[in-house]
């Protein structure tokens, strides 16, 4: 009888073990959709930071989680189509890179949770009800963009006290930039500066914007944070260099590309923190109950090599406050 009992246990064990393994293998892995308006290389650093944030929380792409990337390749008109594609895939969460992508996904679904990696004005655009209580199916990281544009003007004036006229390169078609532009105008009045608008709504508009700045000849210019302008940063930096104009940019990607100065939140840090939203949502949290976070880490980067090439002198007081000086 003892031998029979042992045999029965062994048979049951052999029978149950493959079933358990099969159940584990067929268990659905969470699937994340990622939507970006630009080209893949433009987002390499931020999405690596996002994956790093996921790894810190125990998620490994391709092993414990699937990420579906969709890039509009600089064609904003494709965002609606790509957002709809992610919705059809029935992903668990959609990560929208910024405001334009958030708007496209918001129009495509009211049920799938949406996390924006950076957003200049989520309340003003109506994407969330408030920072503390987003409501709906959207939450994420806000960049404080309107406040930061005033700070960039202050830094530009501190570096070059004689400037009077400042051109602003921005995208009026980006709904998150309306408040940013108003705040920039208010900051300029407080600092005694005159602004010249240089709007770009698509890649074909840069030539005319550059021509206008060449004719009007500002003393300096700044760019507002926008995916379209970031994607064209090489051309923007080349124009500033050719015209020998002092410029301050919203992200360090510009200074890495040869731009003079940049000041803004650490985008990589924001996307790493965006992974915590995905984790909480996958564990059952509702976006409506997850407050929108704001940056905690800011970077002032100065490209001293570019300054010397342009014959510009950066005050030692400003250099001393820089988080990084490129020499």
Verbal overview:
This protein is of the alpha/beta class. The protein has 2 domains: 31-142 and 267-296, Rossmann fold, CATH 3.40.50.2300; 145-265 and 299-326, Rossmann fold (3-Layer(aba) Sandwich), CATH 3.40.50. The protein is 46% helix and 18% strand. The protein has 13 helices and 12 strands. The chain has helices spanning 2-26, 44-56, 79-88, 99-108, 145-159, 177-191, 206-216, 227-231, 233-243, 252-256, 267-282, 304-310, 316-321, and strands at residues 31-36, 66-71, 93-96, 114-119, 138-142, 165-170, 194-199, 220-223, 247-249, 261-265, 298-303, 324-326. Strands 7-6-8-9-10-11-12 form a 7-stranded mixed beta sheet, sandwiched between helices. Strands 2-1-3-4-5 form a 5-stranded parallel beta sheet, with helices on both faces. α2 crosses α11, α3 (79-88) packs across α4 and α5 packs parallel to α6. It is globular and about 60 Å long. The termini are far apart.
């Amino acid at each position: 009888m003892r031998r029979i009992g042992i045999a029965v246990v062994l048979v049951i064990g052999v029978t149950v073990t493959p079933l358990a393994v099969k159940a584990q293998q067929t268990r659905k892995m969470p699937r994340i959709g990622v939507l970006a308006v630009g080209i893949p290389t433009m987002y390499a650093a931020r999405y690596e930071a996002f994956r790093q944030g996921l790894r810190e929380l125990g998620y490994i792409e391709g092993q414990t989680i699937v990420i579906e990337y969709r890039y509009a390749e600089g064609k904003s008109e494709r965002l609606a189509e790509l957002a709809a594609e992610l919705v059809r895939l029935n992903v668990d969460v959609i990560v929208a890179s910024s405001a334009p992508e958030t708007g496209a996904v918001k129009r495509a679904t009211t049920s799938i949770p949406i996390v924006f990696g950076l957003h200049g004005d989520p309340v003003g655009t109506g994407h969330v009800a408030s920072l503390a209580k987003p409501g709906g199916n959207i939450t994420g990281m806000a960049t404080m963009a309107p406040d930061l544009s005033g700070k960039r003007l202050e830094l530009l004036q501190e570096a070059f006290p004689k400037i009077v006229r400042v051109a602003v390169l921005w995208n009026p078609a980006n709904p998150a930039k309306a408040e940013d532009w108003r705040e920039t105008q208010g900051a300029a009045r407080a600092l005694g500066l005159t602004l010249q608008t240089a709007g770009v709504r698509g890649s074909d508009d840069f030539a005319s914007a550059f021509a206008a700045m060449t004719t009007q000849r500002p003393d300096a210019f700044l760019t507002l944070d926008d995916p379209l302008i970031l994607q064209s940063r090489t051309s923007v930096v080349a124009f500033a260099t050719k015209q020998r104009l002092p410029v301050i940019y919203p992200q360090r990607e510009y200074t890495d590309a040869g731009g003079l100065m940049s000041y803004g939140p650490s985008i990589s840090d924001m996307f790493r923190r965006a992974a915590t939203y995905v984790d909480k949502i996958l564990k059952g949290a509702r976006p409506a109950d997850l407050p929108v976070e704001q940056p905690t880490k800011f970077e002032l980067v100065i490209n001293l090599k570019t300054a010397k090439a342009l014959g510009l002198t950066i005050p030692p007081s400003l250099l001393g406050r820089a988080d990084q000086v490129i020499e």
